[in-house]
Every structure is written in structure tokens, then in C-alpha cells.
Amino acid sequence: MLGPVETRSVSPVFVGRSNELDTLHDALTSANAGEPRTLLIGGEAGVGKTRLTEEFAAAATRRGAVVAVGGCVEMGADGLPFAPFSTALRALRRELPDAFEAATRGQQEELARLLPELGEHPAPRGTGRHDEEGMARLFELTARLLEHIGAGHTVVLVLEDLHWADASTRHLLTYLFRILRTGRLVVLATYRSDDIHRRHPLRPLLAELDRLRTVCRLELDRFTRPEVCRQIAGILATEPDPAQVDRIFERSDGNAFFVEELAVCAHEGCADDLSDSLRDVLLVRVEALPEAAQRVVRIAAEGGSTVEYRLLAAVARLGEDDLIEALRAAVNANILTAAPTGDGYRFRHALVREAVGDDLLPGERSRLNRRYAEALEDDPSLVAADQRVMRLASYWYHAHDPAKALPAVLEASVTARARHAYSEQLGLLERAMELWDVTPEDVRERLRPADYTEVRPPCGSDPAITPLRYLDLMAEAAVAGRFCGERDRAMKIIKRALRLLDEEHDPLRAAWFWVQRSRLVQAKAQGNGRRELARAQDLVRGLPPSEVHAEVLANVANWSMVHEPGPEAFSAAERAVEYARMVGACEIEMTARLTLGGLMVQAGDVDAGLAEMHEVNRRTVQDGITAVAGRSYVNLPSELESVGRSREAVPLLEKGVAYTRRYGLLDHEAWVWGNLAESLFTLGRWEEAAEAASRSRRVGRSAKPRAFHARIRAELALARGDLAEAAAQLTDGRSCFGTHDCAPQHTLPLVRIAIGVAAGEGRLLDARAELDRALADGFPPGTQRYGWPLLLTAATVEARTAGLPAAGPGRPDALARIRAAAKSLTVNVPVWEAYERWVRAELLRAEGHVRPEDWAGIVAAFETLERPYDLARVRLRLAEALLLAGEDRREGATELLRLAQAVAGHLRARPLADSVALLAQRARLSLAPPAQPCAVPEDPAESLGLTSRERDVLRLVSLGRTNRQIAEELFISPKTASVHVSNILAKLGVSGRGEAAAVAHRLELFPGDTLAAPAAG
Q1: Is the pLDDT score of 654 beyond 50?
Q2: I want to staple 592 with a disulfide (CB 3.0 to 4.6 A). Which of 196, 347, 576, 861 is the partner?
Q3: Which residues contact 140 (CB under 8 A, 6 or more apart)?
Q4: Residue 314, class by beta-carbon neighbours within 10 Å (0-12 exposed, 13-18 middle, 19+ buried)?
Q5: How many angstroms separate the CA atoms of 200 and 171, rounded?
Q6: Is the model more confident about 256 or about 677?
Q7: Distances (CA, A) of 745 to 67, 294, 391, 774, 786
């Protein structure tokens, strides 16, 4: 290696960029205060991006920050997966070993995909979790790692040359820019703006990041003439001749790197002979080198962004003294420079490397790549272990030797998959398919599926002895495309595979591809996927049990549960479980059992179905089947909600949030947040529901979780009287769900909201039209959780508009349609029994028949359920019925209205509050608390729906006891006491313990006790 060498062309004076440097320092100041900052620096090649980041990095270090730099590695057209992050994390580990170890503890295996040295041993082939969220898991862990380190140290993460970034690096960077919210972090990335042509893969990323308010984007301009003058003065260490400054400024147009090159050329007296081509300016000093040095520079240009000294020596085939003299000449001429790691060389500027590379002859380029590949095969230790396989594949491919390139490219695809770099895996598999036909047959015959594929359809042949097939590569590539979000490319591969399979009899393999096509069709919102699954079913029908057969049936069962629950779904789920057990496919069995449990709940076998789902959740969490476990945290609480057990669903959903976040199951986490929002809404915890819905939208990667967020937001807005917001969220929800996949669980709640919005805006005919469209196909079995609320909304609209002239025409038909639809819905649990009675009463109200005994029974039914908003609404209706019945019912009506008013105020449900106030005004009732204690029922706690245990807890709350004191007195846990208090607050419609004590005092629930003074909140 070389010692210190002379460097003349870089100015020691930092010129200009004061505004940009101030912006960077402001970002560092914010980061020091715990607010992470993300910045993008763009500019044409040579404009000074690296010099700016170096200047800032030095200043940040002086201010106590830890700076970690990583650059994207370019090898021909290939980028190393996650290269800048691997380098930067390696630097962080070196600078902060203790903090790094603490931040990675327990996650070393997963993070070793970014930093291989974190793993004690290389992972065996085929190990690890590979699914659509595998990359998301890695991204989440990386974000947590940076936030953990950033909690104790200010970290500046510099990622250079994004224009060369591989797709996985781009995806990770986007994720970090979106997700980082805490920690003392500055993430700074640079890119060449002049390289970003219309089809460059970085272009859509930049457009996306521009929409993020958290990202600051800087574009560096060229230097002005005074700045060029200062730069030349720094390079020459003397004031330059003004005429010379004019010439250099004119030729360089203010590009800092070209200024350096032209200034050195002028100083050495060779500028007058140059042509106008700046490429010639870049090559002129190369051509002035000794022949051996020129040869080494040409070799280095083809080796990659950085070339290790030992690798360069092996390829150059010079004596060590001759090689060192050649390198010294190139470094003294400021063409090469020592790599930051100290074990290799890189071009001082990529523009020089590109100019030298472009000057190579085609045969010369392939010959150099072959020599690089041969040297690396002879001695794999010449390059870092985490780069070896990828670089060898690139060298052999560019050497145009298919027999060597195909195995190397396939080996690289395995490495990419192991690192969750699915975009790179897809590109390498496509390259392997390109090489397939030109590779000698004897080479292909030696390749085995077990060595290079993981998702190959199990079609009866032994992957360890059967030769690799082209269709195996297509299967692997299709799944890689789905995992990395390249759905169009994956779909093209699947279509080609199915065309090839039309020519041969391989039903299991064809069925497997049809299942993949169904998944993609649904993911792309181009259909509901049923047609593709039907083709797969036809192909496996009559065949012996197999893993593919079980997978087809499990997918059919799950699709049917969501879209068309019924006997076919049951049959498919049961057979999928049976077949999966026969062939030992545990994950498919768990998937099918989860579906089967949900179908049992929907069919009325509630306890057995929930028990099955609980068992699947327990088994999959215990056995580490994360994808199915994540789905169980979505489906099980959803079924609990469907049978009115919202309180039971909430803690399970909270566990689901922690589980899905831990394993990076982002879409599963989004669904869990959405289900949590739904259950919290039911329980009257609306502010928490709104926050959970927002988390669902922020976390989810696909459209449907975003639609769930829109639906909950629309329901909240409608219940609070904000029709404009409800309409906007309804439009957003329908847009996200799309028109091709009309699952009842998505469409029916949106129809209910649409009816409410239309009625609220006075568009009764539109509301009826929405109902007619929903009823046209009827309610599929198991959709009572969506059907009853929809019918209730429609019946309530008809009752509310009774007597309006515009509502008369068509009313009898509308009421008849609602009654007929209600007969098709089951009432297998108390909550839907209560809804059925409510719908029936609203229909009678629409026809002018209001009976207090009907509404009293409905109120009694809802008092046993934990649905405070619904309870307040039916109390309003009962109060109205009592007032219509006669003067002797006014006292009871008043108390009901007070209770409804309290809930409406707590929830900020303005339409409900307005209805209560209007009825009280019409009946001349005062809802203010009476001056004297009113007579209360013998046991007023029962009228509030309080259980005996909740009554005991409320007594102690009224005495000012804490949750721990309550727990000690009642011999329960503090957590159970907390749950009881939450239930009591919801049932009383109050927001705090003080208000609950006030209600108990007003109603004289505990006359023998001295109650605590109500506290604020």
C-alpha cells in the first residue's frame, strides 16, 4: 500500500454553499433536540455534493455527532443490495460498539442481512422467513436500530450516490424517510440530478419524497465567476490571472470538478491543445501517465466503484514494485485515491472512471471482467465476504461467458433473497432466464432446484436430484416480484409460465401459478381473484392430496369466507386442513384452521369457532409461524367484534399491534390497528378510535388498510355531524377498495355511510338508491354484522323523514324491502337480537306506530351490551315514546334524556345531542340536574347497566380510591380494577372519575357513604 502522496487539484478553501451549509447545520441542531431530520442533496456530476457533505460531516463531528458514511456501489449496471447501509452501519458499530450491541440485541439474525458480521454463522440455505413482509420486517428493525442509537448519540447518516442505488436501498431509504419520528438523527442522501432521466428508477422515489413535508431537498447550483476565481486561487495557492479565470469559467460553466481539472491542465501548460470536449479534459491527464499506470487505471475502471488492492494486483499481473509505482503515479495525478477503508483504491471522481471506462474497447472490457472473475474464483478472500457472490456474478455476466455466468447469477439470487433484497433477486433471476437458452445443456443439467430455489411448487419430484427447470426460475421470480412490489413484472412472468404449461401436462405446477396469479390480481385491484382460483381448483380436482392441492383449497376457503361465505367455503376449509395434515404442511393447515374457525363463528357455532381460532393463535405464536400468527391477530378479534365482544377484542388487538410490529408485518399491523379502531368506536372511546385509524393508514402499504382508516373516519364524522368530512372519507374509502373486489365486509359498511350522508344532505332518493343497490344481490351468509347496521340506518332514515311530502312516494316499497332483507339475516348472538328489535321498532315508527314497551325492551337489551352510543340512541327513542304515551311518563323520559345527553356530550355526537335537546324543548323538559335529589329507583345502578362488581368499584371510585386501593379492597388485580373503571365511565357516558363520582352522588347510589369531591377530568 502507499504512504502519503501529493494532491494538488482540490482547493483547500471551501467555496460558497453558505446557505446550504446553514440548512444542514439547522438540521443538526434539530436532531440534537431529538427531532430527526432527513435531507436530499442533488446536483449534476462534479458540482460539489461530496465536498459539501465532507465539510458538513467534519463540522458535525466537531459538534459531537457520530458520522457514518455509506456509498452506493456501481458495478456496470449492477448495484450491491443495501451497500450504503451496510457500510454506514459498519461504521456505526465501529464508533459506538456498546450502543450498537444494545440496539441489535435479540435481532442479530435478521439484521445480519444488512451487516453479515452480526450473525455468528452463515444462515443455512433455505432458512429464514420469506414472505411479502420480509423486507418490511428488516426495514422496521433498521429504523428501530437507528432510533435506539439516536436516543443516546447524535448520528449523521450520509448515503452517497443514490443514482446508483439498488432497488432495496431505495425502498429502505423511503421507509426511513417516512417512519423516523424520534431520535437524534440526520439522514443525508446525495444523487446526481443530471443522471435522473425520465425512466431512471430514482425519479419516482424523488417525486414521492417531494410530497413528504419531513424531507428537505437541496439542489446545488454551479459556481458563479467570483466563486470559480476563489476556487482556482485555492488550487494554485495564488491569485489567478483574470483572463485565465474567464477561460476556465467559460469552459467549465461553473462546474467545480471541471474547474479543478482545467485549472491543473492550465497550470501544467496543456490546456491550449485541448479540444472542446470535457471528456477529453478528463482523459488528458490519464493519457499523460506512464503506460503501466494507464493500464492499472483502465483495470480499476472496470473493477467497480472501489477495487481492493490485492484484487487489483491479481488482475494487473504486475510485480509488486511496478504496481505500486503505477498506483503512485495515478494517485499523484489525482486520478485515483485511497479508499476510506484503507484497503483499496477508487477514482477521485466517478466522472473520470466513466470516461476511462467508455474509452475501453468491447473485447477489452469482457477480457478484464473475465480476469476479475478468475482471480476471485482462485482466491475468494480478495473481496469482502458480503460482496463476493454478487461481484462474481457481475464479472462473469459482463465477461459474456454463459456457462460460468448462469451458476454465478443463480448463486447471487440466493444471496439476495437471504438478505430480503427481493428486487435484486428478481433482477438476477431475470438475468438467469436471459442466459438460460445460451448456456450449454450439460451445465444446466448439473443445476438443482434445491440449491437455487425456495418457492418451487412441490410437484412430486425430488429437488435435490431433479435438474433445475426454466419454470423453476419463473416460479422463484414471480414470488420475488410479488414480495418486492414489482407486480407488473411478476404478472408477466406468471402469464409466460402458464403459456408454457399449456404445452405440457403438469396440473400441480399450473395450479400453483394460478394461485399466484389470483394473489396478484387482488393486490393490483384488477379483479377479485376468484376466476384464477377456480382454474386452480379445476386443475387439482381428482388428484391425490398434495401440498399444492391443500394450498389451493386454503386459498379458496379464505376467498369464500370474505366474499361468499357458505357451504363451499366450509368444505374447502375442512379439506384443506385434512390435506395439509396428510402431507405435513403445517403453515397451510394453520391457515385453513383459522379460516374454518371464522366460518364457524359466522355460521353460529360461536364458542367452538372462537376456540379454534384461539388455538391457531397460540400454536402459530409458539411455533414462530409469523404470517399466520399475524393474520390470527386480525381475524380473531374481528370475529369477537362480530359477536358483540368488543371489550374482549381490545387487549388481543393491543397484543397484535406489538406482535406485528415486532416482526415487521406492516399490512397485518395496519389491519390490527383498523380492527382496534372499530372496537374502540363500539366501546365509545372515539378519540382513541380516531388515533388507531390514523395509525392504520400510516403503517399500511396497500390500499385496503387505507380504506379502513377512511371508513372509521367517515363513521366518526357522520356521528358528529360533519357531513362534508364524512363524504370526503367515503369517497376516499371507495377509491382505495376499488371496484373489482366487492367483498361485503368492505362494501356494506360504506353503503351504510353513504345512506347516512345522503339522508343528512336531504337526498332521500339517493339514500334509497344506495340501499337498493346493496340489496340487489342479498346478504351472503355470515354478513349479519354488516347487514343489521345497514338496515338500521335505512330504517332510521325512513322513520326520521316520515311525514315529509317528498318522502311519501316509494316509502311503502322501501319499508317492505328492508323488512324482507331483515328476514335473511341471522340473530345468533344478543347484539344482533337487539339490532333486529331496533330495526323492527324503527320500521314501525316510520309507519307512525310508537309503543313504549317495544323501546323499553330494546333499551333493556342494550343495557347488557357495551355499546354506549347505541344505548344513548335507543334511550332517546324510549324517552320519545314515553312522552307520546302521556304526562305520567315525563319523569322517566327526563332521566333517559339526561343519560343520552351525557353520552352525546362525552362523545361530541352533535346530531344526537341536537335531537335530545330538541325533544326536551318540545316537551318543555329541563335536563339540568334537579335542585333537590329526585326519587330514584330502588336500585338505580341497574338502570345504568352496571354489574354488581362495577357497582362495588363505583362506590370506591366515589370515595376517591385509586385503582390499586380498589384492587386491594376487592381482592382483584389493579389491571382488572382499571378495566372495571373504564367500563363504568363508558356506561355512565362520562370522561373521568370525578364525573362518575358526581353522577353517583346525584343519583344517591351510595347514600351511606361520604363521597369524594369531584376532581377535574
Answers
A1: yes
A2: 576
A3: 179, 661, 664, 666
A4: middle
A5: 15
A6: 677
A7: 50, 69, 49, 12, 7
